[in-house]
Automatic annotation (TrEMBL):
Protein name: ABC transporter substrate-binding protein
Similarity comment: Belongs to the bacterial solute-binding protein 5 family.
Organism: Herbaspirillum lusitanum
Keyword flag Transcription: no
A Pfam family of this chain: SBP_bac_5
Keywords: Signal
InterPro entries for the chain: Peptide/Ni-bd, SBP_5, SBP_5_dom, TAT_signal
Domain Solute-binding protein family positions: 82-424
Length: 508
């Protein structure tokens, strides 16, 4: 972060580098120490915030757009655009939202229930291929009895709706402005109600955000945030160390540890609510439960964490870790190569007659994805499993998933922000939704009653039992909690959120 003595050196250089797009007021904000620069790994794919469910990109979208509900730094709901929410039905099919009065979009328009209806119903109806539709296609209608009251009617129970209203990609868009300028106009000049508004955008280079002084929570302490697009992690580390950035993320663990040991820096290597797991498929040799469980018992997760994450990645045996609502103390599918070989033998396989299949992964989509996959292949090989590694680009992963093309296990992240177990298994295993890769008839009778349970404690207890059952069937193999690696200057007073999303509004 800049101070006054930086003015004669850094500010003129910044003005020359940015040309006309960096104005004197921006320079003055930087001089006063009210500007922060983020060395950031990704650019936005679009200024339509529903096109990406990537939690990294959410750092930018959450600056510009509000969500109906908000999460506290830990878990649970915090103050949000929705002042109150409650179920009006016992089967979780009618949800009432009472909006906070006085919330304004960046162009001055008032945020009302009509914007909720536009975002979560009209746009879903008109663009059924969007990520928003993948979550909210159960909405039959949204009534707007008053500007501050919206009532969501679902075609089937959706107990997870409040959690999903605080999750990605549930960002509120302004109907009047969007319809006035059209989709292309909105992409050129997006307007939200978030704590920052877009000041300048240079694709694949930088995003400059200015404080929204009329923000309903109060104006941000930072008057400007610059996201400098820096895809290479080595370059991000160098930007932080040289002083051209104040904070960066998604560094290799050992690099985060090194930078965090410098005098003016602090590191945050924290588990998130995301999970890394193997989604199994109900095809071919994987219809045999013995084979699926053998594949789980063959994995030494603590060793993987030590080798690839210096021990910081938290091994999990359910799609939840300590401190999350779905966590069950003491539950494990232990690393046991002898048991894996016994189960393989019962399925008709051995080291001399190995089980062979394709195993799908990405490379570079999340931290160490390809390295995790290669290590798993080697662990499987030791017990009699020969996996042929298939690397797919992110878009191809979605195409395979949506069209049922997977014929073997898939290594992937799943990143619900709120940690609600219904947003994990409720989507990963529901055979009716596109997120599901494993599909079997024994799931709906166990899952659907939980999706209709309005009693929170009863629902969470039910999901803990459900997840123990599905893991014991080998329907999924949870591996690790997500891992956030952030290094920042101490003066920024960075505060980590359990979701793993950067929140510049909270920085000082």
């Amino acid at each position: 972060m800049f101070n006054r003595r930086d003015f004669l050196t850094k500010i003129p250089a910044a003005l020359l580098a940015g040309g006309a797009t960096m104005h004197l007021r921006d320079a003055l904000a930087a001089m006063e120490g009210r500007s922060a620069t983020v060395a950031f790994p990704l650019d936005v794919a679009s200024w339509d915030p529903v096109v990406s469910a990537n939690p990294t990109i959410s750092a930018i979208y959450k600056c510009v757009f509000d969500q109906p509900l908000e999460l506290a730094p830990g878990l649970g709901f915090a103050g949000s655009v929705v002042a109150e929410h409650k179920w009006l039905s016992k089967d979780c099919t009618v949800l009432e939202l009472t909006l906070r009065d006085g919330v304004r979009f960046h162009n001055g328009d008032r945020l009302t229930s009509d914007d909720i209806r536009f975002t979560f119903y009209d746009r879903v109806k008109n663009d059924k291929a969007s990520l928003l539709a993948g979550v909210w296609n159960k909405i039959e209608r949204i009534d707007t009895p008053s500007p501050l009251k919206a009532v969501m009617h679902f075609s089937q129970p959706m107990a997870t709706a409040p959690a999903m209203l605080a999750d990605i990609p549930a960002y509120i868009l302004p109907r009047a402005y969007y319809e006035k300028v059209g989709k292309e106009g909105f992409m050129q000049k997006p307007v939200g109600s978030g704590p920052f508004k877009l000041l300048d955008y240079q694709r694949e280079q930088r995003i400059v955000l200015a404080a929204h002084e009329g923000y309903w929570k109060g104006a941000p302490k930072l008057k400007q945030v610059v996201f400098q697009i820096t895809k290479d992690p080595t370059a991000r580390a160098a930007a932080l160390q040289s002083g051209s950035a104040d904070i960066t993320m998604n560094l290799p663990v050992r690099e985060a540890e090194r930078l965090g040991s410098l005098p003016d820096m602090e590191r945050h290597i924290d588990p998130t609510t995301g999970v890394i797991l193997l989604q199994m498929v109900n095809k071919g040799i994987f219809t045999d439960r013995n084979l699926r469980l053998a594949a789980h018992h063959a994995l030494d997760k603590p060793s993987l964490s030590r080798a690839l994450f210096n021990g910081h990645a938290t091994p999990i045996w359910l799609p939840a870790g300590p401190g999350m609502p779905g966590y069950v103390e003491g539950f494990q599918i232990p690393y046991d190569p002898a048991k894996a070989r016994t189960l393989l033998a019962q399925a008709g396989y051995s080291e001399s007659k190995p089980a062979r299949f394709r195993f799908y992964t990405t490379k570079g989509v999340f931290a160490s994805d390809f390295d995790i996959a290669r290590a798993i292949v080697q662990m499987w090989k030791r017990v009699g499993i020969e996996a042929e590694l298939q690397v797919l680009e992110g878009p191809m992963m979605y195409e395979y998933q949506n069209n049922g093309k997977f014929d073997g296990p898939v290594l992937k992240p799943f990143n619900p922000a709120g940690g609600d177990p219904g947003t994990y298994s409720g989507y990963m295993l529901d055979p009716k939704v596109s997120f599901s890769i494993w599909k079997s008839d024994d799931i709906p009778p166990r899952l659907y009653p939980l999706m209709a349970e309005p009693d929170q404690e009863k629902r969470l207890a039910g999901f803990r039992s459900f997840d123990q059952w599905q893991v014991e069937q080998g329907y999924s193999i949870p591996l690790f909690l997500g891992l956030s690696t952030v290094v920042s200057r101490k003066a920024l007073r960075f505060q980590p959120y359990r979701s793993g999303v950067l929140m510049p509004y909270s920085w000082a």
